[in-house]
Amino acid sequence: MTKTIYYRMRASKNNKGDWIADQQGAWQYLSVNEGKGKRPEWLKIAEKQAADGGRGFQFRLRNGAWSEPVYRTIAAAREAANADTKKTPAQTSIAAGIVGGLAIQIDRYLSEIQANKSHKTYLAYANSLALFQESCRKSDVADVNRSDILNFKLYLTNRKLDDGEKMSARACFNNFLNVSVFFKWAGRSFISMGIKKSDWFHKPEREPEAYTEEEMNALFKAADDNERLILKSFLNSGFRSGELAHLTYGDIDSQYSIWKVRPKTLALSDGRREWKPKTQESQREVAVHPGLTKKIMARKKALGASDDDLIFANREGNPDNHLLRIVKRVAKKARLTGRVDDHKFRSTAITLWLQAGHTVPDVMRWVGHVDPKTILRYAEKVNLRRDETRKRITKTFDAFASMGD
């Protein structure tokens, strides 16, 4: 019979992605099968290094805290974890892999998210679950009930951010949704807890908003050469900020001027790192104006860059995760008012493609959407602003226009 235990140790991953015991590393949550022949090689090495180098292992207590003391070997930690709980108070006894332990389940879930989703998605779920743990003092998944979920809703509603403002309606909805996904994964769906439709936050839909031609002209004029290249890349590709930040020269087919969003291994200043798009559907190809691709390739040649190099790297050679700041900086120079951000370029690309007569399924593929509702909202707005559409709608009432005048 295979037994899985849960513990944490000071560890980090090497360039190959293998776990190693590391006295300077952060405490990492790890789980491992303890069945015969199931223990991985890295754990055997970690145990030896823990014994030789003074590293340690800890288990979760029933109250959710980590065990004290820090055990010098996993054997000692395992012995403590298998202590007879009948002779030890439940609130202090150490238990390996307590089924339903809230903190343990959250750790396991986040480990899966980190392994299978983008880093941005992982951070979003980690933040949402941290907020839930702040609002809920239950230590076991099985003990969480509707009252705890409603308390979490109230906590989100009243929580103030660093600037003193309350959390936006969309942020409240997203955090509530993320927590519901976790509980479904843990076998405790919101429905099984008695959560009603009326208990949910209302999901606010952002009004489709695109830059006007005058606004884009002002932005491009105010930008320097590098800033202009970034803004036009956002506009022409419809890429998300993270997709553009991780774009490499090898992602561009210069012959056909096609830009690709795909998983890749990045050669960064601090080693090699895996990156993957937000979702499976986000992997796609987009035809981009050849004039822009030509400028990108000229940049590659001028810098002597390789296919593996990032196009818009920061000073350290890593993905620039602050492209929004560049957009904001240019907008300030252009003295634009109203909403100005990187995602608005994506909205503009969608709007322009629809105005040009491209179909909703085509546009969905180009921006990596699976739900047509979002694109249809753009299409509805675009159609209503066409002269022929408005004429067809208003012509219905021509016979009544002068009645009674």
Structure description:
- The chain has 405 residues and is of the alpha+beta class.
- The chain has 3 domains: 78 residues, no CATH class; 98 residues, Orthogonal Bundle (DNA polymerase, domain 1), CATH 1.10.150; 172 residues, Intergrase catalytic core (hpI Integrase, Chain A), CATH 1.10.443.
- Helix content is 44%, strand content 10%.
- It contains 15 helices and 9 strands.
- The strands form 3 sheets. Strands 1, 2, 3 and 4 form a 4-stranded antiparallel β-sheet that branches. It has a 3-stranded antiparallel β-sheet with strand order 5-6-9.
- Strand 5 and strand 6 form a beta hairpin.
- The longest helix has 17 residues.
- The chain is globular.
- The termini are far apart.
- About 4% of the residues have low confidence.
What can be said about this structure in brief?
The protein is built from 15 helices and nine strands. With 405 residues, the protein is of the alpha+beta class. The chain folds into three domains: 4-81, no CATH class; 102-199, DNA polymerase, domain 1 (Orthogonal Bundle); 213-384, Intergrase catalytic core (hpI Integrase, Chain A, Orthogonal Bundle), CATH 1.10.443.
